[in-house]
Amino acid sequence: MYESRLPLADTELAVITSFSPCRESIQRGKLIPISDAERRRPTLLFLHGWHDNAASFAVLFEPLAVRFNLVAVDWPGHGLSAHRQTDNYYYFMDYVDDLAQIIQSLSSQNLMLVGHSLGALVAAAYAGAFPESVTGLVLIEGLAPLHESAERVPERLRQGIESRMRRRQRQSAEFKLDSFQAALSVRCRVNRLTPDQLRPLVQRATYTDGKHWYWRHDDKLRCDSLFRMTKEQVKALMRQIECPVLSVIGDKGFSYLKEPDAGLSWLRQAGQIVVPGGHHCHLDSPQLVCEQILLLSSKINKLV
């Protein structure tokens, strides 16, 4: 796998690819393989969840690199990517704009998006706005963008503003950890996963000054959203998705993803499978998830 930096309009992202990108193309904001044969392959674009990074998909890379060009990005403020400007927060729709720019950088005409959690919601929103640009969606432990009733707007706005106020009042000192193992233990406890499952993710999410370890992610990520779409707005967006969609959920994950209002019933071509695992079920059941991605790809190829 290859590490690259991809410039966007207002920031720069860290990117992992299964192919060696043409250096001149990166300078032009493109991720184009050097090899002509690789340029003709379908592309899988991996989109990670909140407080995760591109390495959360590392266990899937080797089995899928035989068939696809793989691209995994760190969202702004995550992993090795740059943080947003100090006066800029992390609006959900800005992630969709980031994704649109990432997709513009790719040369593939056969593009599948694989999103986990936040990444799944962003992928679904993008596919609703730009249905012609995506041939397939794999949404892991996430479906439609989060929505709530219009009556909650005042409460949501107040909650979001107050979360920013609390952040401004906090001391600016970074949260220190005594060792990498301490950081790994924190994530294992929060995510209920093993050290081996989380080590690649935590290695990418931390840095050391030689004495202490620190998290790389932007502290502004912890601020609450100021606004969410209504159910009607989200439903209208999801109904515009044209490509086949596969929802993957863990048997110990978010149970609400099985409910009608989670968004599956609003899609034209959609199926859902349950695999062993929790919210990070692609780490609990990587082989099953890879098999399902390959099956969806085969289905899409038959439709083309």
TrEMBL record:
Enumerate the spans annotated as AB hydrolase-1 domain. Answer: 42-284
Which superkingdom heads the taxonomic lineage of this protein's source? Bacteria
What Gene3D superfamilies does the record tag this protein with? alpha/beta hydrolase (3.40.50.1820)
Sorted UniProt keywords? Hydrolase
User: One Pfam annotation, family name?
Assistant: Abhydrolase_1
Could you identify this protein by its name? Alpha/beta hydrolase
Question: Annotated Gene Ontology MF terms?
Answer: hydrolase activity
